[in-house]
């Protein structure tokens, strides 16, 4: 049981390049999330998907797009990377069944934009 | 506008003593709170939660206290162990059906052997 997996683990991009961060969960969870973690800023929500087929903006969505490909997978795309997007990105999932429950996090992707 | 605040960036405690991590929030609509623990190069892992209908929740060495009137929660770890050294995040949510959580900035706990 892998939980939440993310690829790649590390990535270096040049300004203006694009890339997609992949996330998959095998817990049959309805809800999925993308966060970024920056020093002194904690975890900030970029986008989330409350259920398959829906996506919504979080606190810091500018410069990102997401796709909920199916119940298992939720990808995050940077169309034109900027140095301000240098960060550690975490994907998370939760049951999303109408009751409060914790989020399970992946190991993170460390992205550097030069 | 930081709705969830952890004002202590770091904390050092001797092994065996109590660790107290604090969290303040500004949104009175928050009604569910969680604590996460994060080791370097890993994702956060869930530690303990509390609903606003309670003022205390215990799980082994970990206890979370909620003071709604002060909009304050705290995590107590007793006794502290070197393996507890990590960054701790508090998070809060409202009953809106969106399952979104707002995270604090984290407190780095170091337990000294």
Count of DSSP H/I helices of chain A? 0
Major sheet characteristics of chain A: 7 strands, mixed
Label the overall shape of chain A. globular
Q: Profile the largest sheet of chain B.
A: 6 strands, mixed
Overall mean confidence score, pLDDT of chain A: 93
Distance between the termini of chain A: 36 Å
In terms of quaternary structure, what is this?
heterodimer
List the helices and strands and how they pair.
The complex is a heterodimer of chains A (114) and B (113).
Chain A: E1 4-7, E2 10-13, E3 19-25, E4 31-38, E5 42-49, E6 56-57, E7 64-68, E8 74-78, E9 87-94, E10 104-105, E11 109-113
Parallel strand pairs in A: 2-11
Antiparallel strand pairs in A: 1-3, 3-8, 4-5, 4-9, 5-6, 7-8, 9-10, 9-11
Chain B: E1 4-5, E2 10-14, E3 19-25, E4 32-38, E5 45-51, E6 56-59, E7 62-67, E8 72-77, E9 86-93, E10 102-103, E11 107-112
Parallel strand pairs in B: 2-11
Antiparallel strand pairs in B: 1-3, 3-8, 4-5, 4-9, 6-7, 7-8, 9-10, 9-11
Description:
The complex is a heterodimer of chains A (114) and B (113). In chain A, the strands form 2 sheets. In chain A, strands 2, 4, 5, 6, 9, 10 and 11 form a 7-stranded mixed beta sheet that branches. Chain A has strands at 4-7, 10-13, 19-25, 31-38, 42-49, 56-57, 64-68, 74-78, 87-94, 104-105, 109-113. Chain A is built from no helices and 11 strands. Chain A has 114 residues and is mostly beta strands. Chain B has 113 residues and is mostly beta strands. In chain B, the strands form 2 sheets. In chain B, strands 2, 4, 5, 9, 10 and 11 form a 6-stranded mixed beta sheet that branches. Chain B has a 5-stranded antiparallel beta sheet with strand order 1-3-8-7-6, with no helix packed on it. Chain B is globular and about 45 Å long. The termini of chain B are far apart. The interface between A and B is medium-sized, with 27 and 27 residues.
